Each structure stands twice: as structure tokens, then as C-alpha cells.
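Recap for those who missed Tuesday's class. We walked through two folding examples back to back. For each one, the amino acid string is listed first and its predicted C-alpha cells come directly after. Nothing is annotated here on purpose, so try labeling regions yourself before you check the end of the notes.
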Amino acid sequence: MRIALYGNYLYELAVALRANTDNDVHLFLDSRTIPACLSEEIPLRDETFVHSEPWVTYREIICPRRAKLTKEFSAFDVILTTDLGPIFAARSGTKYVFIPGGSDLTQWPFPIHSRSTRPHGLRRDILELIIAARLRPAIRSSVSIWTSGPWSPNRLAAGRLGLTLDMFLLQMVDTDLFSPSAGVPRQTDSSESLTIFHPTRIAFESDPRVVEVGGYMGNDILFRGFAQALQRGINARLVLIDRKNSSDTEVAKELIEDLGISDHVEWLRAKTSEGFTWREMVDHYRACDIVASEFSGWTGLISVEAASCGKPVITWVEEDAMERLHPEGHPFVQAKDDEGVCAAISMLADADIRRSIGESSRSWVLAKHERGQVARTCESMLARLGFT
């Protein structure tokens, strides 16, 4: 089966699907938007597999029927697409599945409703209106929509489009790369500082529309809970990432100062403005004791990557959604408010508890999110839709 995939979010899926020699897999990436995390990936150098060009420009968006990407898509049996790919897939004559990565479902189809959540101006607003006019019918025309879960922002956006979500493809991770440190796990005693790594972008504005589109990370919950843990005598430090796309970094620094915890907080910066590579992130995961992910109600890749590295993860995910996806349970340490964060940190100060949860987290990821496993699930889902 000839399968085309479009978008950075689908890189791992493309690599995993390609492992099945019955599949002829081609990945299309816009050369101007490839993130730093992919920069060291060897498969990107294979021109028989990855096709990297400036596929999506203003001209292509305005006239997608004439776009080169549209013509490329027409040669495949099925297209799996994220980002703006549906605009071109819809005009290719090939059936396609939409696998949204976030804003392509929750934000871009609704330029007026989401205007307060993005940069705007006359030219930007006009472009956003054109994108939405192309993207909304393209999403509706897909043979299926596979989100990573029935999270509230996804369900709300789908409802606005008159659609329902009933098929889910879990996020995947390279478990060989994101793996625990070799040898004996790091131990801490009462004289050593417990390291909590929080690599999530800093965005805790409580604007309802930001929350609706999944832009709220709830970092302030972590900061306040961490401060409470310090007051209770927990010896810990919090490691954050200072990145250019974190909208509330300066506000966070002010809050951290007001809470009196600045001496216990370390900010990391990548060597380049593009951010850390996956291999650099693995080193940071391995160097910490606990990972704090987002407190938005849904799982991001940080939670899965950290768990794959054998680290206990403090987060908050919607229980009804997780029950639907994982009725047998999950290993994440739930914390919905600052008191919950404080309690979680206090519990995980025990090295034996950290080790136990970390080991179960790794096992859970291997069973649920390992990219080969998810690729086999994807093939089964395609078969259910008539693609073989």
C-alpha cells in the first residue's frame, strides 16, 4: 500500500509504518518548519523516503488545486495528514485521514473565535480567514479524524465542525531513544536536592479561549505547589526551559520571585533559538528525578517521553478521557491544584516510590505508546476503513 504522510507531527508514525515492507511510505515535510528535535534524525537524509520542500506558501494556500503537493498526493492509495495538509489532500483525488496535532483542529478552523489566542493584524487576519475557508471543508471531507484522545479541546472543536470523534491513535515515542539511563538509577538522600524537570512551554493565562484551544499549560499550579513543598521541608530544585514560544515566561519569573523560590529554580536555554534536539532532551530527562508535565487536562508528548525514560510524571489529565483510552489505568501521578502538586512531590521524595512508579511508567509506554505498536494499530484502523 502506498501511504503518504504530511507534517512534522507524523514523523514517528512514518518511520514505524515504513518498517513494514508491505508499505511504500513517503513523508512530506515543509522545509521551512522542520523543528530542531528532528534535526539529527538520520531518516530525514533519505530522499527516497522524506520529501522536504517549501510545500505550503501563500500561493499554494490560495490555489491549492495547482499546488505541487496536491499533485504528489494524487499518486498514493491513502494520505495521513496533519497541519495544513488536508487542504491539498482534499483536491488530490486520494482519500485521506486527518490526524491533528493541536491547533490545526482547535484553532485554525476558527480564526475569529481564536483571534485573541494568536498574533494578529490585517494581513495575518486575512491569511487566517483564507486558511480557515480552505481547512474547514477539507477536515469535514476526510474519511476519518484520529486525535490522540477525546480531550475537551478536541471534542469542542470537532463539535463546532459538526463532527464526532470515535477513533483515536495514541501518541508515539521512540522507546529505544527515550529510555532509562544504563546502570543504577540516581539516588537521593536527605542531604541531596530532588530535581524536578518541567520542560513544558510556559503558558498559564486563564483566558477561556486559550483554555478552549488547548493553549493553557497550568504552570502556575506547579510553581505554587513546588513552593509549598519547599515550605514543608522538601529539598528540591525546579528546572525549566526558557524558550521563545513560551508566552508567559516573564510573568512566570515574576511569580517565582514573588513566591520566594528563585534560588531553587534553574532556567535552561538551548544552544540555538530552535530549541533542544531529542537527544538533548533525553539527557535532561535522565538527569532528573521527577518530570512535571502540563496541567491542562490532556497528555502531551512530554508525559510520554518522560515515562518512556522511566521517570515518574506529575500531571493532570481528564480522568474520563483516560478511562476511555486506558480502562486498565495509567501510571501518571495526578495533581489538579497546587496542594495536589505539593502532595505528589512529597510522595515522590521517597526513592523507592519513585523507582516503582518509574518502572511501571516505562512498562506502560512500551505496551501503549511504542511506535511500532502504534503503527500496527494504525494499519488496523486503516483496514477498518477499507485500506489494505
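Example two. Treat it independently of the first, because the proteins are unrelated.
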Amino acid sequence: MMVRSSQGLVRLRMVAQTSSNSVPSNFQQLSERVRERFVVSLLKISNRILLVSMALTCQAVVALAQAEAEVSAVSADPAHSEATTGQPPADVPSAAPDIAEPQEAVTEFFRLPAEHHPWARFAPGAWREVEITTETFDEQGELVNRSVTTQQEILKSVSGDRYTLDVQATVDLVGKRIVGAWITRVLHLPTDRAGEIVETVPLDDASIHVGGREIECQTWKVVYRDDARTLIDRIRYTPGHFPFVLDRTTLPGNGADNSPQTAIQVVSAVALDIPYTIDDQVIRSSCVQTKRQGDKGSTNRIAFIAAEVPGGELVARTSDFDLQGTLTRWSTQELLRYGLTPLETLLDTSSDESPESRRQRRLLRRQNRR
């Protein structure tokens, strides 16, 4: 009995020892499987988290874009603008976004280039001296008065669309000499007047005929002040033919139209490329006619002008008529001398030389040139 118990105890110990030796191996295998499953689970969970975060991000971007679109739509709403700011909204263009908005109209101005102006084309200091002989007639056509005026003009400056002249006149009348003071005049290039230019408007181009030649011209409407009145000039300008401004029609600025009946003055080039001799040189000139209509009558003036002379005019003839068409006065204008550089003696008006002496001096000079 005791032997069997001992043998049984020995067996139990052997079984226990065997079991104890196999436990670490089984537990290790079990742990590795658990770790593998745990890692796989972690990867699955991380992938799911990544997918969820990406989905949330996309939703947030879409929501943000929708919010911005709503804000833009609300800001562009005129009612919302007025409600939030208390001010009337600015005009909202109705054009579609893909259509370019129209650009603002560009205001055009008539700028007569200095090189196309009879005075401004020269440097300051250029000058001329002219003699104007005037005779006046009574109702029977008898001569009642005669005067001779010597006028001197000096170009002082050219700035922008203005030029400045110093002008002095000496009048010989019935044996007396009246020496005038020097007067400074600031004039505008487009109008040759002192009044401010109010506006210039481009009109349709037009062709005009000068001496049998058809010339294409720009047409401009120039509105300006002249003392207490407003005048309108319709100017036909071409940069290719001297005297450049080929026609100028002056109208009263009281809403009158451009019909010839309302014009108070028309200056037109009537002939081009006419030879004219000055200082033993034949130069090219143009003939310009001025017709003026006033309350007391009319004036007709013919002048020959050239680009080589300051002020342009070489010679001019003027006739004045009353409302019945009777000649009341006429005058002649002759160029005595001119220069392109300053001449100090031109400012000396103290000379007692008579008109007859000046005429004799001019005649002698012409004979010497021959």
C-alpha cells in the first residue's frame, strides 16, 4: 500500500514537472499571436481615423467655399449694403462676370502744335514791325481822315497753349505823333484771344476745297470767353498744309447753330503755294480771306501769310462797309522788317522819323536789293 502511494506520488511529480516545463513555450506562442492581432487592429483603427479625418477636411473646405460665396452674394446685394452702411449703394453693373465692363470715355482736347502757329513756332525774342495806313470816308465817299500807324510786336514767351506778345503802336495823325505804351498780351494758341477756353469737342472730319485742291481736315468745336460774351469757333485743321488752320468760323455762344447766317466771322484759306518775294528771296505764301459781320456793317480782309515771318502776315488789305454796303474805311498793312532774334533798337520809340522818311528808307532799301 505504501509502495503504491509512493509510486503514485512520483508520477504526479513527473507530470507536474513536465507541465511546468511546457508552460513557457505555450505562453510565448500565445503572446506572439496576440501581438500580431493587436498590431493588425491598430493599423485598421489608424486607417479608419485617417479616412474619417480626410472626409472631415473635405467637408470643411466645401463648407468654407459655400460660406464665402454666400458672403459675396450678400455684400453685392444693394439692399444689404444700404441696410448695413446707411448709405445708398453704388451702381452695380448688370453685365455678366465674363463680359468686360465698358471703359470711361476719354475727353479729347484740341491742341494746336506750337510749330503750326504763326508766332509760337519761333523762339522768344522774335519780332516784327508793320505799317498800317488807314483812310476814312464820309457818306458821299469823300476822304475825311488819314492816319499811319507803326506797330511793333515782340514774342516774349510760349508756355503750354499760351503765348505772350509785347505790342506797341505809334500813330501819325494830321501832323501829330502819338506814341503808345508797350502792352503785354497773353493769348491762346487755338483762338488767338485772351479769353479762357471752356471746352473743345471733336466733330466729324470733313474735306474742304482750297484753290481747286481737296484737303481732308479735322473738325473741332472750341468754346471760349471773349470779354463778357461766349464765342464758338468751328476749326478745320490739317497738319499737312500751311497755314494748317484752313477755315475758322466764329459763332455767338448763345445756342446758335452752325449755319452761315449766324457766323460773325469766317477766316478761310483761299489759295496756297503763292510765290512772294521778301529780302531778295522767293518764298511760299498762302492767301487768307477774313469776312466779319457786325451790327454796323461788314469787313472784308485779304492777307498773304508765310511760315518764315513771325506773326505770319506779309501784307494785308482791309475794307469796311456799312449796312447798305457803302465803303466807309479801308487800310493797308505792310511788313517793314522782322527778325528771329531780339533787337534792342526795336524797343526805342523815341525816334522822330516821319512816315514819309520811313517810306523813303524802305524804297531805298528795295532799290539797293535790286
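Answers for example two:
The chain is about 25% helix and 40% strand.
Residues 2-75 form the longest helix (74 residues).
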